[in-house]
């Protein structure tokens, strides 16, 4: 196959060039996070193209309307600053789209100019563009630092900074910061918390925003999303469970600092042991007993892992995507006795490699890990060409490697542009673990069925 | 889902009622009722002006028009994006430009994305060094014959000179390297990027070739981007007619086609908005005449082929063209018979692009459907009202910053025989450098909306309830939540091809599939009120 015909086995060191990136830029993450606030309109402060590209990327992935506005910078705004544009935006948005809240994120353009968003917002308030009881929050998302995950993290931190409050109330709620996961995952996390009979504020929450029903009635602001009241009340919660240090730690720490809410920074609960740690942390922090139904749910996952072990054992896996997902997935793959040998994330951060190695517990001495600058799918493909793998787990772009090298792939992460299901069926928790096992097994066995010689095709497997 | 159309004229007031005063005033001149007079003239519409911030526009940026639209479909130029990672990432394979390299070994970089992944360090200290190094690394890894360098927003602000770096690296590496100052903030939409792409291709690529392909009737097809395989359909038609395709800008193209494009006998312009500049510049410098064609729809396709035959005034070509049209029309006629009863009387709205909102109307007409409202995302007045208004378009500050190349006839390569040929044909009534625009071909009283907003879209959907709405990915699912199918006319919803004759059949099938889909009957639960 010749889709990526110019990818050579010979790896030449690169310092400046990224080819087939394993990350994208901050603002798209901020936009996705902001969609998880009820009746919020995300706003991109920069050129029109940023907003257009981010909306397109999110829409292609979630297959849902993604509403967001832009400051529509022109050359003039780039010279004189974007204040006039943002003021006009705020006025028009509240007049026409009447959100409860506008969540502004910046772009490389407005960051390079140095626009001061809080100052502009206060000007908008002075001018009477922000109606009584309505809010404008913001976060800085310079595209030339970090990745889309950083942008998500920054917007969630912005929610805490602007909205979380401490009052006299002790509602006994627990905060869950889910990280950049699918609406289905957020729904599943809420279910797990409710199975444990805990009052939860999950934020942001894109379930019922990025997976809305089709019934002929368009809801411009869908039913879902964390409400402003809930976001304010996060400061009164008993504890925060931050899932994934890259996407959720900053907000949890900010909440500890601002409102003294203790935080547990955990891995994303993908796979058996990461879910175990999440459930156990909730159990000990909340001082509850884990309901038997949940323990039995866990048991079903373990049962599946045991039943299908022969097909997983020893399989070499390449993982590419976002750090929180990969940390959890590398552990889960190793727990299935697969060999996660190549692990690549474009998102920078020293903690990544340390964390992955910790989770692998010296089980995969041959593992190659790359992240940050020049850690891209081109490098991953070159590694695969040097020594092949049996499975690739990553976003849609892996399709090109998968087809060229005839290696099965599982779509996981962002963006998935060519399939459905990811936004509807979770991969977090024990149920998510079972779904991942099912998908991995299907990938291996359908290849075996397709490629075995006639005499070796098995009916029972 | 048939429905009474309320007066579109009355709608206009409602469309702008919620806006702040200044925004309403601005929008009022971008929304017009198509009051065609008896002499065929159409009202003026404001277009290619700034979008009101916050309005929720369909529009993208200059970079998207330059890198994404015009250069994106090329396969053997490495398109290196100088900037933070996102700009390159989002333009990576998302426009569905298909390409077919001649051999499995031929250069094909279309499935790759290249970026300098600019970091804060470069924002502060400048990114020229990193760009130069990235170009070297492209060369070491891929050995392309050409590299295009695309500027993103911060590049213009920090003052990186992509053109100088490109020239220096071109000297160092001995390959063609050229830059595009297509920062996202330039102009008011993708349109500025089209113009910049045209200019740079003209300066750095077109005219470098020395040999035209063999053939009696050599044409360039400009403004065809091979979405969903459209170009493959047209290539096949041309070949069967005996017309030689010298180059396509830029669907299924290669750089050697661009380089030799000045040697063709005729330029055909499909997407007037994005590529008319190259047609004009080639004519000025080399003498090649151009005319507008529309290969979307069987009528437009047949008309274009016949006009090409008339241009070359060749009986064999005429016969071939008629034979091919006749062959192709068998399936089209059969499909029209099959689909017209299922689609007759249905109403369409098209808000997309800079040509597509016009081109596709013919396809709807073919099966008895009517376009009641339409508008472009990034077109200019001439795309609405026709090129006759070109002289009266006021150039505003946003457009003035986009370079207009001064082109003169090349002393050696200008071919006066083509000027003579054009003159002769014009005397016989053939039109050149022509585009009549969308409005003259639309019904009197239809509603024309430039740069439609999400708010206006929703009012149209709520009040007029068209049977199908055509737009892009950002609009698609919002429209469908109303229970109205939305056809993407940028990506074709991953279907197509829709060009030529067989493409029309595909289109009819897809529209029938969408309009008459069973799912629309099941939106309400059986227990819901009024279900």
Average pLDDT of chain B, rounded to a whole number, is: 96
Which structural class should the secondary elements of chain A be placed in? alpha/beta
With helices defined by DSSP (H or I, 4 residues minimum), what is the helix count of chain A? 18
Shape of chain A: globular
Question: Could you name the key traits of this structure?
Answer:
heterodimer, A: 461 residues, alpha/beta, Rossmann fold, 3 domains, 5-stranded parallel beta sheet, globular, B: 531 residues, 6-stranded mixed beta sheet, 22 helices
Structural summary, described in words:
The complex is a heterodimer of chains A (461) and B (531). With 461 residues, chain A is an alpha/beta fold. Chain A has three domains: 26-163, Rossmann fold, CATH 3.40.50.1980; 174-295, Nitrogenase molybdenum iron protein domain (Rossmann fold); 307-432, Rossmann fold. Chain A is built from 18 helices and 14 strands. Chain A has helices at 26-35, 48-62, 75-80, 83-96, 108-113, 117-126, 148-163, 183-195, 228-233, 245-259, 272-286, 292-307, 309-312, 323-335, 351-360, 377-386, 398-405, 429-451; strands at residues 18-19, 40-45, 69-70, 101-106, 135-139, 174-177, 200-202, 239-243, 263-266, 316-320, 339-345, 368-371, 391-394, 409-411. In chain A, the strands form three sheets. A five-stranded parallel beta sheet of chain A has the order 12-11-10-13-14, sandwiched between helices. In chain A, strands 3-2-4-5 form a four-stranded parallel beta sheet, sandwiched between helices. In chain A, helix 14 (323-335) links the parallel strand 10 (316-320) and strand 11 (339-345). In chain A, helix 1 packs across helix 2 (48-62), helix 4 (83-96) crosses helix 6 and helix 7 packs parallel to helix 10. The mean pLDDT of chain A is 98. Chain B is α/β, with parallel strands linked by helices. Chain B folds into three domains: 8-58 and 355-382 and 438-522, Nitrogenase molybdenum iron protein domain (Rossmann fold), CATH 3.40.50.1980; 62-184, Rossmann fold (3-Layer(aba) Sandwich), CATH 3.40.50; 218-335 and 385-427, Nitrogenase molybdenum iron protein domain (Rossmann fold), CATH 3.40.50.1980. Helices cover 43% and strands 12% of the residues of chain B. Chain B is built from 22 helices and 14 strands. Chain B has helices at residues 8-16, 21-28, 62-71, 85-90, 120-125, 128-142, 153-158, 162-173, 190-204, 230-241, 255-260, 272-286, 298-312, 315-343, 356-359, 361-366, 381-385, 397-400, 416-427, 454-464, 473-480, 500-515, and strands spanning 31-33, 77-82, 114-115, 146-151, 176-180, 218-224, 244-250, 266-269, 290-292, 347-351, 370-375, 447-449, 468-471, 486-488. A six-stranded mixed beta sheet of chain B has the order 1-12-11-10-13-14. Chain B starts with 7 loop residues before the first helix and ends in a 16-residue tail after the last helix. Strand 1 (18-19) of chain A pairs antiparallel with strand 3 (114-115) of chain B.
